[in-house]
Every structure is written in structure tokens, then in C-alpha cells.
């Protein structure tokens, strides 16, 4: 697919908005409410409302695009915020396009970065893309999802097409991007190829004739580029919907694997359940809004009940079970709840890792590190200072403790256990 010539400005203006007015029915209003739930911005709202009305009146589904660069193989709950919105719109009957940026991954998205992102190899992109879609299918309905790769049309552009595309945007407009501006003022290098990224992302919307593009709040500039280029190519411009970045388990930083405050969607059910039960009562409602598939009316009733005296733990259990069920099963969610309650009573899970170590007697810090219960001996000492280490149910306070020959149940915090055999 290739688009190499631009229409006249009058043609672009003619395509800028729907001309026929369709009735705004209750069903359209409901679809609008679902679109707005939890979102940061929906631009322009009036255009999206008209698109929804047109779709209902004509029976033609809207084309909704989400592009993801497979820069890492694993997806956590923070990534699913946008996927959840896609699923909600998919359930309304619209066409969902899961776009894998195999071409744009070779450039590297500069959004929010103060350095040039290193490009991935073709092998890394292929491996990550396969894992991404497999995990995304736990949220989206794979039978109703259109899978596309932007190399389909980006490779076909060639040098001539790339030059023609680059002519449709100015350097001054490109420098309006906050991250580019900061890097330029700081004297941090900006490579020319980084300017191509938002152009190529916007061109994806032209190729796919998108009606709506979703992304995180950090993607707003790139999403608006899609609107601009669609008008340049004589298409009706897409609306854009940005979703907030989900806070991690700490409730402060955005969820990130590197910050250790994440919940991976392929983690064991018990681990996932325990992590979700660790969030604060305040953060829980944020998770409900962005991660739960319950209606907002139901969530509001549940929140009112908690404010009236119901134990917030009940609501947190419901949330944890819903999410574990989504990514595992209802049976796994029930077992995870039982396991969590057992641990809360000081019990030991039925299945814990078995570790064999040599060198007895071995210091407790070395035991924790070698058993995989602490990343380092110094962190093990910190955990002991905090009262978070137990051996056979007894809290360890002596950092000089050495364990002799035998088998011990070693516990760190509420969720980490190992049955350690020392020889």
C-alpha cells in the first residue's frame, strides 16, 4: 500500500469532517461514555460523537488503531490500560487493528527520552512481536482483531516516498515536541532519523484509514501527526484517545519492570493476586477504573459501600480475582485467594521452590542470596533489619546467623518462600 501524492488543500478540507448529520441516540451516548471512561483526552470529542452516530446509522464499523513497537517481550498491567479500551470498543462492534511496528522499531520511538533509543535487530523484533500478540490476545478477542505490520506499506515507500512524506511537515513543528525541545536546549544530540518516527506513525493511520488512534499520554504528538497526514492525503482525519499511564504498586511511579513495581500478565496466579492485594486502598479505585471490566455504576456502588463501612479488603479481593481470572482462570483465582489467606495466617504455601546448597554452616545473608530470595547479601541484611526474614516460622534478627546441615523453610516478606536443604 502506498500513498505518494497529496491532494489539493480544498480536497483535504472537504475530507476534514463528516458532512451528514446522524441522530445521537441513547446507544451512541452509551458508546461515547464507554469511550470516555478512564481516558485522559479524547480529541475532538464532537468529531468522535459524529463518527459513532454515523457508524450506528450506517452499520459500518469504525476502524480503531493501536500501534505497539515490540521493544520488549513482556506486557504488564500498565500496558493493558490501552488494550482494555480497545476491547471495550471492540465489544461495541468496531474493527480493532493491532498494529505491530516492526518497521518503526528499527527507528526507535524518541517519545519521552533524552537520548537516542537504540534500534532493535530484525530477529529481536520478530521474537518480541510474537510474544506481544500472544499476550495481547489475553485482553483482545483474537477472532475479531485485525493484525497488521507497518512494514507492509513502510518498506514499499522507498527513498522517493520517504522524501515526499518528509515534505509534509516542518522542522519548526517537529521541534514543538517537548522532548526534542529539551534535548536541543541541553545540547543533547538528536539524530535526523528520529524525526522520521512520528511521520511514519502518522503515515500508518493513512495506510489503515483509521477513524481513531489510541495511545498513552506520552504519544499525543505522534497521534496528532496521524490527523495532520490524513488531511494531507485527503482522508477524514482520525480522532485520538489518550489513556493515562498506570501507577505501579507503589502508587507513585508509573508501572515499570525496571522499577520493580509491576504486575506481569504472565506471572503465576498466586504472585499476581498477592501483588494486587498489596496496593493501597486509594490506588485500588484507580485500578478499578483503568483495569476492571465492571461498569462504572457498579464500581461507584462498591466505593460507596466501602465509604459507608464495608471492609475495603472485600473490594480489593474482587479486583484481584477479576484480573487473575482474566489472565488465568476462575479456578486459579479461587486457589490464589486461598493461598493468600493461608499466608496471611502465617501458613506455608503447598508448593514452594526446592533449593539445595552446599557449604554448611552458611550465613543467612548468603542463604538468601543463593536461594534467590534476595538480589544481594546487602539487600538480605536490609531485609533482616526490617524484620522481613523468617526461618521455619521464626523471625530472624541476628544478621550473623549461620544455618547448619539440614532442611529449612526460609521466607522473605509475605510471598517469597524456599525450602532450602543445606549440605
UniProtKB/TrEMBL annotation:
The keyword RNA-binding applies. One of its GO terms (biological process) is tyrosyl-tRNA aminoacylation. It is found in: Cytoplasm. Its main location: cytoplasm. PROSITE patterns: AA_TRNA_LIGASE_I, S4. A motif ('HIGH' region) lies at residues 70-79. Residues 362-423 form the RNA-binding S4 domain. It catalyses: tRNA(Tyr) + L-tyrosine + ATP = L-tyrosyl-tRNA(Tyr) + AMP + diphosphate + H(+). Pfam families: S4 (PF01479), tRNA-synt_1b (PF00579). Its EC number is 6.1.1.1. A motif ('KMSKS' region) lies at residues 254-258. Keywords: Aminoacyl-tRNA synthetase, ATP-binding, Cytoplasm, Ligase, Nucleotide-binding, Protein biosynthesis, RNA-binding. InterPro entries: aa-tRNA-synth_I_CS, aa-tRNA-synth_Ic, Rossmann-like_a/b/a_fold, S4_RNA-bd, S4_RNA-bd_sf, Tyr-tRNA-ligase, Tyr-tRNA-ligase_bac-type, Tyr-tRNA-ligase_bac_2. ATP binds at residue 257. SUPFAM superfamilies: Alpha-L RNA-binding motif, Nucleotidylyl transferase. It is an enzyme of class 6 (ligase). GO terms for molecular function: ATP binding; RNA binding; tyrosine-tRNA ligase activity. GO terms for cellular component: cytosol. Homodimer. PANTHER family: TYROSINE--TRNA LIGASE, TYROSYL-TRNA SYNTHETASE. Catalyzes the attachment of tyrosine to tRNA(Tyr) in a two-step reaction: tyrosine is first activated by ATP to form Tyr-AMP and then transferred to the acceptor end of tRNA(Tyr). Belongs to the class-I aminoacyl-tRNA synthetase family. TyrS type 2 subfamily. This is Tyrosine--tRNA ligase.
Amino acid at each position: 500500500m502506498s500513498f505518494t501524492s497529496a491532494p489539493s488543500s480544498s480536497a483535504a478540507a472537504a475530507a476534514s469532517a463528516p458532512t451528514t448529520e446522524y441522530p445521537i441516540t441513547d446507544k451512541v451516548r452509551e458508546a461515547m461514555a464507554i469511550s470516555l471512561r478512564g481516558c485522559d483526552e479524547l480529541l475532538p470529542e464532537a468529531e468522535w460523537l459524529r463518527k459513532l452516530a454515523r457508524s450506528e446509522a450506517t452499520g459500518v464499523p469504525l476502524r480503531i488503531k493501536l500501534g505497539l513497537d515490540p521493544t520488549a517481550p513482556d506486557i504488564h498491567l500498565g500496558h493493558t490500560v490501552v488494550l482494555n479500551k480497545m476491547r471495550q470498543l471492540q465489544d461495541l462492534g468496531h474493527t480493532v487493528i493491532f498494529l505491530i511496528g516492526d518497521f518503526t522499531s528499527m527507528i526507535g520511538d524518541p517519545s519521552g527520552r533524552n537520548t537516542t533509543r537504540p534500534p532493535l535487530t530484525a530477529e529481536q523484533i520478530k521474537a518480541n512481536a510474537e510474544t506481544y500478540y500472544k499476550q495481547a490476545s489475553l485482553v483482545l478477542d483474537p477472532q475479531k482483531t485485525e493484525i497488521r505490520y507497518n512494514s507492509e506499506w513502510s518498506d514499499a515507500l522507498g527513498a522517493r516516498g520517504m522524501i515526499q512524506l518528509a515534505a509534509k511537515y516542518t522542522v519548526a513543528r517537529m521541534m514543538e515536541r517537548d522532548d526534542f525541545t529539551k534535548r536541543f536546549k541541553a545540547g543533547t544530540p538528536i539524530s535526523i532519523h528520529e524525526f522520521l518516527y512520528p511521520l511514519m506513525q502518522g503515515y500508518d493511520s493513512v495506510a489503515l484509514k483509521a477513524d481513531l488512534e489510541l495511545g498513552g499520554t506520552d504519544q499525543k504528538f505522534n497521534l496528532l501527526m496521524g490527523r495532520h497526514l490524513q488531511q494531507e492525503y485527503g482522508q477524514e482525519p482520525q480522532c485520538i484517545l489518550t489513556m493515562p499511564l498506570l501507577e505501579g504498586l507503589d502508587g507513585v511511579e508509573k508501572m515499570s519492570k525496571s522499577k520493580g513495581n509491576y504486575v506481569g500478565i504472565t506471572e503465576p496466579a498466586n504472585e499476581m493476586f498477592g501483588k494486587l492485594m498489596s496496593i493501597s486502598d486509594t490506588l485500588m479505585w484507580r485500578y478499578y477504573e483503568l483495569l476492571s471490566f465492571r461498569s462504572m455504576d457498579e464500581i461507584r456502588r462498591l466505593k460507596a459501600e466501602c465509604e459507608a463501612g464495608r471492609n475495603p479488603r472485600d473490594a480489593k479481593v474482587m479486583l484481584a480475582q477479576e484480573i487473575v481470572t482474566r489472565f488465568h482462570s476462575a479456578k486459579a483465582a479461587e486457589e490464589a485467594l486461598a493461598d493468600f489467606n493461608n499466608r496471611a495466617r502465617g501458613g506455608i504455601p503447598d508448593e514452594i521452590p526446592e533449593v539445595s546448597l552446599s557449604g554448611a554452616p552458611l550465613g543467612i545473608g548468603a542463604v538468601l542470596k543463593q536461594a534467590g530470595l534476595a538480589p544481594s547479601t546487602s539487600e538480605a541484611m536490609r531485609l533482616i533489619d526490617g524484620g522481613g526474614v523468617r526461618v521455619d516460622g521464626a523471625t530472624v534478627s541476628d544478621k550473623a546467623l549461620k544455618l547448619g546441615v539440614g532442611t529449612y523453610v526460609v521466607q522473605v516478606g509475605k510471598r517469597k518462600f524456599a525450602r532450602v536443604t543445606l549440605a
